TrEMBL record:
InterPro entries to which the protein is assigned, alphabetical: Glyco_trans_1 (IPR001296), Glyco_trans_4-like_N (IPR028098)
Domain Glycosyltransferase subfamily 4-like N-terminal: 18-125
CDD domains tied to this protein: GT4_AviGT4-like
Domain of life per record: Bacteria
Protein name in UniProt: Glycosyltransferase family 4 protein
Taxonomic lineage: Bacteria, Pseudomonadati, Pseudomonadota, Alphaproteobacteria, Sphingomonadales
Residue ranges of domain Glycosyl transferase family in the record: 170-305
Pfam assignment, any one: Glyco_transf_4
Length: 363
């Protein structure tokens, strides 16, 4: 099958540091190539992929100090996709909104994976207008705010099986927080949990400009007040296995409808359990008492810290191997591609992976 993957340009594919969407696009593209498909990736020129790369801009836009407006660059991306659309059996978009008016004119099957939150009121008129656009959710919970649309399926994220090495006997005696410093990610809760549990907390996180005040006014004073809190800063892929693998647990104390939460399965791949708040996708990702604990408040999270020794880290990794590999993710996407109207019939009889997990298809 000839497949185009259309990535956002904010980060390279995969990103050098923080960036969930671009990381997943990288894993999809490389696994499709591994399974024998002809894959073309539309992304920034500093991307690294086994697919054919169509470079749209020289570097990831977030890392280019000369970029003041990202919209023109994404319009260039769309024009290049339009120009080459007839070369492909399927166009797989990961850029949320901009391509909506374009895809109706292309004459090529498309699917769009929605990677972000969908509970924003401004999205309602868009999805009422483009209700025929085939969409993929990354969790069933992510779908709840939208009006009736053309859901093609739900595909949980996956990671390459050998990306992160599991640690069954961690060397560190600390809890970990990994992600982004923002009010909805609630690093303040993570600090409160660690302090109440008498545990060291290590925070590896990105601080966006929009969240700088939250860091300055709320989180930085808490970090200074508790001597057992270490702020590591933003880390890359190469550092995650050590950071997560040597932690007693990952804290995921979110306070928003998290569409997926990639860090939970990154911890799982490292054999590290997660203590997560019951929001968004969490109940779909964490198997209670097997890959972690799901809690409703700080007090329950502190109590869960005391139960970590009852979890078998080998079973945590086995949960990852069973449910969250890139092979399973791509097999799910291939099933969706084959069901789309207009996909060539000869592309349909293809291998499905042994760890295939069927997720509900909701119309």
């Amino acid at each position: 099958m000839k497949i185009a993957q259309i990535a956002p340009l904010m980060e390279s594919v995969p990103p050098k540091l923080y960036g969930g969407t671009e990381r997943i696009v990288a894993y999809i593209a490389d696994e499709l190539v591994r399974q024998g498909h002809e894959v073309t990736l539309f992304a920034s020129a500093d991307s690294a992929t086994s697919a054919e790369l169509v470079p749209i801009c020289e570097t990831a836009l977030r890392l280019d100090s000369q970029v003041q407006d990202t919209l023109p660059h994404h319009l260039v991306l769309l024009d290049e996709v339009r120009r080459r659309a007839a070369e492909f059996d399927i166009l797989h978009f990961h850029i949320d909104l901009l391509h909506g008016p374009l895809v109706r004119t292309l004459g090529v099957p498309t699917v769009t994976t929605l990677h972000g939150r969908l509970d924003l009121p401004d999205l309602q008129p868009y999805y009422r207008t483009f209700g025929d656009l085939p969409l993929v959710s990354i969790s069933n919970d992510q779908r709840r705010p939208l009006p009736p649309v053309n859901w093609a399926g739900t595909v949980h994220h996956g990671l390459p099986r050998d990306l992160l090495t599991p640690t069954f006997e961690p060397k560190g005696d600390y809890l970990a927080f990994l992600g982004r410093i923002s009010p909805e990610k609630r690093p303040d809760r993570a600090i409160a949990i660690a302090a109440a549990a008498g545990m060291k907390l290590r925070i590896a996180a990105k601080i966006d400009k929009a969240d700088q005040r939250y860091w300055d006014d709320v989180i930085a004073p808490m970090v200074r007040a508790y001597p057992d809190i270490e702020f590591v800063g933003e880390i890359g892929e190469a550092q995650k296995a050590d950071f997560l693998g040597n932690a007693r647990a990952l804290l995921f104390p979110i306070d928003w409808p998290e569409p997926f939460g990639l860090v939970m399965i990154e911890a799982m791949a490292c054999a590290t359990p997660t203590i997560a708040f019951r929001c968004g996708s969490v109940p779909e990702v964490i198997d209670e008492g097997e890959s972690g604990f799901i809690v409703d408040n700080v007090e329950e999270a502190v109590e869960a810290v005391g139960r970590l020794d009852g979890l078998d880290r080998r079973r945590v990794r086995q949960t990852f191997d069973r449910r969250f590999t890139a092979e399973r993710m791509v097999d799910d996407y291939l099933s969706i591609y084959r069901e789309l109207s207009g996909v060539p019939a000869q592309s349909r009889p293809m291998r499905l992976g042994a760890d295939k997990v069927d997720l509900p298809i909701m119309a």
